[in-house]
Amino acid sequence: MMAISALPLIMMTFFAGGELLPAPGSSSYDAVATRLEPGGRLYMYVATDAYIESSIQSAEKLVQAAFAEENANAEERKVSELVFGLVEDSGIRQLTGFGISSSVRMGGYYHNRFYMHHGKGNNTGKVWQLIGNKPGALAHLDLCPASTAVAEFGEFDLSGTWLWVKEVVKTSNIEEMQTSFDQFQGILLQQGIDLDRLTASIDDEFGLIITLDPTTMQTFAPSPDFTLQIPDLAATLVLPVNSSDLFELLKLRLAPFAQLAEFPERRVLQMPPVNTPVFTFKPVIVQTDGFLFLASRPEIVDQCLAARNGTGQRLLDDANFKTASEGLPLDADGFVCVSPQAGELFLDIQKSVLKQARTANTSDTLVNLLDSTLSGTRPFFLVSVFHAMEDGWWVRSNSSLNAGQFLMMKTIAGPIFLGTVLPATFNARKRAREVQCMSNLRQIALALMMYASDHDGQLPQADGIEGLRELEPYLSDTAILRCPAITAEMPADWSILKESDVSYVYFGGFKLEDVPHDAPIVFDKPYNHGNKINVGFADGHVETLDLFAGSVLEIVQKVSSSREYDPDFLKLIETKAQTFDQRGLNY
């Protein structure tokens, strides 16, 4: 299988461009071979320099030919120069070759090696400079509790990358790009986001820890005839930090709904719980002991810190992990770990799925397919370490997988994190927007009551933005008329506001004494919050209703279905709603 997958690489190298093929003895084979292990199940080397050089030169010729034929303008040529400049800066031209080897160790597991060679002193490209230049990331293994299922730590110079981006824009000579970039930075600074300080506050490292607790099982039952027991799961992103800048920014941005707790050695931002079909997440942000944790629940942070200070069980002390990591250096620049315990749990879940498939009305074809995936399967594990050497990148791993499978396993941690912490954070952010939107409507409703008090009980006459403009003396900012889910800049001048600028529908012209106290006066436009609508009523109170509506008329009809309005009044507000829908909400 590996031979087939390697064939395109080998052929591309062989046919890389005639005179650009390296002379005999000039390739990086000898340097790469010293990092590999011969005599195993797999051994492969590919010389890349000729192919890369040929590809870049071919692309340059193709672009020049296209420009000549189409009479490209100066801006198009500047963009082309920018792209090829990025390629040059990246250091991809400095890559001379890579190799892979895989051999079987005692106990039946694989020892895999992967090496990317650039040559001594030939590492000025950004890709070599920004990743893995500060040995010691593996020291963070002591943050991993014994319940760790997946962990990854590595080095990435975020500050250096941001400075590179700024330099690229500055030297691009593309005026439109430079202007847009300056405006982008200006907007961020207005919102208190200084990327220079923020990126410098993160110590060029990142980490991800995912834990599984087999002593606490959660039930997943998508249908009555299928039930799956899943170990309780938690995840945290770990950022070594040298200041509180990032925490302060998060505190400011999450203020509407996050609770702040200050302790002598710990600062905590606790967000509202988020329920999923299986797990309940309690997103939390914690800064302590030089780390910033963005976690799915507080308990995982406590477990990580306990492992680090020696008061809790560590993955490092687990006998299975010691066996899995045997022979690997623990002074690397980064690591990836999928623990043997996690592999056993995943295998148990697979077996449970197969067992239930056999007892349910499942086709024989599907059952046989599931059975074939488990036949001869043993729990997988992976311990991989990364070194930035003076002449290239060296990855070594012990795994139940061969080298090809191992390279694919590098993608496991990200999707698991995206599937756990990020949905929780996204839902928390969504909830925050709903809370802020409700606050906006309460302020608008209060402004309407104050307006009516000053105008003999009469509300602003015109519907929509024309009526809402009348509230300028009673509202502090035009931003109150927009849902926080919309990030575009809001005009500060009330006189130029358009219907497309505001997030709320307003029904004007009423005198408060002539309308029902529970009549909808101002409310969310459709799709502001999916299946929720915030509604401000004629008596000044605001409610969040669980309903989905695709039009203003549908909102009115669903609100009125649970209320007894006078037929003439109902017809009036339905007519107003139809007028909104006919004009379009952005008229």
Largest sheet: 13 strands, antiparallel
Assess the beta-strand content as a share of residues.
15-25%
**Classification by helices and strands:** alpha+beta
Mean of pLDDT: 80
**Widest sheet: strand ordering:** 1-2-3-15-14-13-4-5-6-12-11-8-7
For the terminal residues, how far apart are their CA atoms?
60 Å
Number of strands: 19
What does the overall shape look like?
A: globular
What does the oligomeric state look like here? single chain
Poorly predicted segments: 1-24, 409-426
Number of helices: 18
Compute the CA-based radius of gyration. 30 Å
Report helical residue fraction: 25-40%
Tell me what the structure shows.
The protein has 587 residues and is of the alpha+beta class. Helices cover 40% and strands 22% of the residues. It is built from 18 helices and 19 strands. Strands 1-2-3-15-14-13-4-5-6-12-11-8-7 form a 13-stranded antiparallel beta sheet, sandwiched between helices. Mean pLDDT is 80; it is low at 1-24 and 409-426.
